[in-house]
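Worked Example 4.2. Consider the chain below.
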Amino acid sequence: MAKVVAAMSGGVDSSVCAYLLKQQGYEVIGATMQIWQDDSSAVEREGSCCGASAVEDARRVAQCLDIPYYVMNFREDFSREVIDRFCAGYLEGITPNPCIMCNRYIKWGAFLERCRAIGADYIATGHYARIIRLPSGRLAIRRSVSAGKDQTYVLYSMTQEELAATLLPVGEYEKTRIREIAREAGLPTATRKDSQDICFIPDGRHERFLKEHTGTAGKSGRFLDLDGNVLGMHDGTAAFTIGQRKGLGIAAGRPVYVCRIDAAAGDVYVSDEETLFKREIIVDDLHYMGEERFEPDAVYMAKVRYSQKLVPCHVRYLKDDKLCVTFEDPVRAPTPGQAAVLYRDDWIAGGGTIVEGK
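Applying the procedure from the previous section yields the following structure tokens:
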């Protein structure tokens, strides 16, 4: 009997993940990763993963399923690989995705390594995604049955070895069916709210978190239009991201959006919305999944933000193994630090990190 460690966040998806695996005949062990929250912390948003209540909920599910359950401490790894990178990115003027970093360095990094050390054949998570083997023999992440909950975007950096050691049973179901399964199985998390936003920033104010964690929210400076006119002042560049309109605190006489951030100078440039649309992006830190190399003559479908729709595109390689992605129709606010993920059909060919939009 194959042994699998199910990552249990205390939510309904990971709970059903563990339940489905047990139904399929695996020897299931439940484990919650403590990654950011101190045991003494009193700040916890309802639905938050990995906090004290989440641990208790996951423990109750494990008892219900009669499976062993452990809490694994990855706070040091998470602080170094996710929080420090997140803060450094914002202070450099880019917008990193902490979920992608967590998946890359923690779930399919430190967690997978520890699970292998205790004899696990697989790890499993409650992500809405599927794993397929292509005719070429390569493994790839495939889009979820539940299109509205699809999470493939944040999994693009997984390697072939990591894919071979992973089970994603939830991706075969619609979200509504997952909750039905939880109720039918009597799982105590059947009605628990889904987690939202960034787990280690409960109030959603990343600039406040940055200031508390690093002592600064970036360099203060000017709001400028594209002609160099000063429109106002701000308290720190890290409070802003490309495409942002709300919270600027300036009266330009028309709607304006952040279009460029010069973190070194402290300048935040704003413009009309139409300037946010870009036909090309430059991508580096490339990861290959379903394909060993991107095909310049192929038509891919690209996603440049978690919540954006797939758009057709073409690619060409540049120097230093960077990639130029050209969209058939311009996309709104492709943002440095975010991922560009390329799909063929409904599976991931590969992806990388956006450097700039053109």
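Residues 276-357 form a domain with the Elongation Factor Tu (Ef-tu); domain 3 fold (CATH 2.40.30.10). The first strand starts at residue 3 and ends at 7. Compare this with Example 4.1 before moving on.
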